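Final report, Chapter 2: Outcomes

The project's central promise was a pipeline that accepts a single protein chain and returns its three-dimensional structure in a standardized token representation, suitable for archiving and comparison. That pipeline is now operational. To close this chapter, we reproduce one record exactly as it appears in the project archive, with the input sequence first and the structure output second.
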Amino acid sequence: MKIKFKHQQFQLDAVNSIVDVFQGQPNESSHFTLDKGRRQKSVEIGDLFQQTESSESEYGFKNNPIKLVDQEVLNNIQSTQRKNGLKLSERLEGKYNVTVEMETGTGKTYTYIRTMFELYKKYGWSKFIIVVPSIAIREGVLKTFQITEDHFMAEYGSKARYFVYNSKQLHHIEKFASDAGINVMIINAQAFNAKGKDARRITMELDDFASRKPIDVIASTNPILIIDEPQSVEGQKTKEAMKDFKALFTLRYSATHREDYNKVYRLDALDAYNMKLVKKISVKGISVKGTSGTNSYVYLEGIDVSDKHAPVARLEYEKRTKTGLTKASKKIVTGDDLYQLSDNLEQYKGFKVSEINGQNNSISFINGVTLFAGDVQGDVSELHFRRIQIRETLKSHFEKERVLFHKGIKVLSLFFIDEVAKYRQYDTDGNEQNGDYADIFEEEYMELLNEQLSLFADDPYIQYLNAIQVTATHKGYFSIDKKSNRFVDSKVSTRETDSDDADAYDLILRQKEQLLSFEEPTRFIFSHSALKEGWDNPNVFQICTLKHSESTIKKRQEVGRGLRLCVNKHGERIDSSIPGIDVHEINALTVVASESYEQFAKQLQGEIAATLSDRPRKADNSFFLDKVLVNARGEQLKIDERLAIKLQNAFIRNGYTDDDYNLTDVYFAALEEQTIKLPDELNAHQEQLIELVKTIYVEGKSDMTNDDRKNTVPNITVNSNFHKKEFKELWSRINKRSVYTVQFDSEELVQKSIMAIDMSLDVPSIRYSIKHGEMNEIESREQLKQGEAFKIRETDADYVHQATASKIKYDLIGKLMDETKLTRKTIVAIMKGIKQAKFMLFQKNPEEFILRASRLINEQKATTIIESITYDVINDTFDTDVFTKNTLKGQLGQNAIAVEKHIYDYVVTDSKIERAFAKELDTSNEVHIYAKLPRGFYIPTPVGDYNPDWAIVFKEGGIKHIYFIAETKGSLDSMELREVEKAKIECARRHFAKLNSDQLKYDVVNNYERLMEIVKG
């Protein structure tokens, strides 16, 4: 199985953000005379990649120098920063340092490899050096080059020649300099900045390199430096050593930069989570409660709630048996007495259950002891604590695997341990034996496996489980001793927490795709805790660290091995491009922590908050000023000073910000209820402004972890309502797939666009401002560095009224094609048809002309598409699996409510509007049965798949439409609905109209009263 790669817009945006920095640079290749050294003849070693015509070429190929002046590069950087909503650079940092921030698990390595191909394609630059901080990351980069080879070959028609620098294999450097194609050298910083003999070889004249210095040959190519994790690479010594490469410029990629030199792209932890580009993190905390003078062992695994009975606690305690004390697990109800259940063990006197609270997940005893889910109290040995962790990991694994198996997704779990002997031991003859953790794993696995086998009998998943032997389903990935061929602990140097064991990484990375296959029985991976960077596997759904949590180990590093979105058995990434799914419903990483949820979440949130330091914190006029909003139709709106102040005042007036411009709870409530009020000028860009405000970091409002134990309603399954004939009748009416066709006359679009431009196009004159400032005094060196010594005294503004005389040549037709995605022929016809006076506005202000003309064309295009779309029902339906095989979980009293008329016993909702609507449906006498439609039921549209909210069966009588499909929205004002939503709703109307049923109706409502108005007609 091979992982498939697809175009992902956020990665393309990151690539383009680098390419645009050098906009205006000519595409040229550059030769130089290659120093062949003092030798008669060289012996070249054959190469699998690109071959030059002569391996003894007198010429080398180097990156062509940058022809732009510094101000042009700075202008390009600022333009890119403005587009990406980033702080503008006031000056260039070096020549040139450019920074890209990308969260772990979002494909940072893929992105910079693609950037190389684009820089080669656009500017002819072909020499690249990737500097990495460790062998771990080096091996990960090498693996990415290998698995993306075919993908980039298909995209660009060529391959990159890549190699890992080795001071003993210098023929690669010769090839690097003399080859004309893309050449990449991967080098870890220790290979040129350390004191050892091997590290010094790069700067020495070597006999085996024709009396040349390797660094001189590398530097002669003007390579582009790409630094992976610069915060781990750039010590003072390394910075000095890197100057010897004579780099054309330096690109810096990381999730946690220490220095943000000219940052042109940001995809931080908050962005990645909100855009669903990484897994959601769920934490199962376990905390030991110290109690004075007692050894009464009690572990509260969790609370189950149901509308059928009172809450039930899952409890583990000690029990007397004929063979001695043993630990027993049992479901406990209020009134149960652990003293009796344990066969009268004295330690449990007073442990009679007084209350089980399903709201806060706690159990209380009459002796005053209260435990919360995940709490363990009493005499807990280290080994038993690890047993609890292993059991909890296995439970989460089986729970996820049972659902995802049917979706073709293999589930993996990862255990980090600190000592190989705890997993694998060897007898005197060298035969492998289980360590303590492997024994515990196999015992707990068999117990939970038998539970699964008894619950789900006739299921392909059970056949899959039966075919796997317990000894074959777990595997260790550790360093291997070369002499004895045994697992050994990873070597970690002083003051370090990471290992540089290449062989252990090689094993993990080499088997990356193999582990994703259902044919491979391994589902549980045991690895050394020192091997925690440079590798990951997309299908790791559980991570459990079987060691004490250390302050030196970052939580982000701990979860990083499982953040990447999963892939199915065909190698396809399960992301938002897959129809009929909620990305985070499937992609959830459970961390089984060795501390409480609160401790783990607090540390992780603190680490994430520290990386969000450059995010804006206030919604004031400086935040809004100069931001460019682009809506779904491609229309752009730049927020000027007047509109920025107007927005600032609107936020204060509506209570969305406090006196210090911090966002308030009023704003977040309005956001959830979809009732945000904005100035009229923003009607067409409301969605984009709300997205812009989401970039403000508000502590406590961006919780990226949730407490797994608070999901008191696990495994939501269908009830008897699902099997009733009334619901089956509704399902048979709506269970029809359709396809859409868009047919419109290009000539009609041309005429509409000409009319719109002639009537509405207006282009402002270019405005310039003069600022008069002076330097009164220099207060500090820091003030000078920040560029704040000059104080503005007065400003003046005026307009350029005559036609712009510019050296820049604009490709008007090409630019309009890019903005509208229409053919050259159509754009030429529109430009030829408009009035000459309108066309002359192009000379007045070319940039604004292109922007505004394309906006008008896009408006007409969007209208034409929706007006001319038709739906046809096809002979295909949805499987009932969309209801029965789900990953729904909920927290009672929060996002889950107990109901009677729904096809589940609980409804899991996304907003207050939905919760209120569900409650009214459930208590209404007119409603017979209803369902919140799963994401697996959807309608295809040109702007993305659409999933309606509700399917309702009304009782016959005074009801005109017995079967109703409802969409709930906070506002019914079409101006306040997002453009994409409006288009999807119109498409849904046309789809349901094709189902030919008088009794079936689709509409958008904001409450139950509005629904009844429509159904009673």
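Archive annotation: The radius of gyration is 32 Å.
This record, like all others produced under the grant, will remain available to the consortium after the project formally closes.
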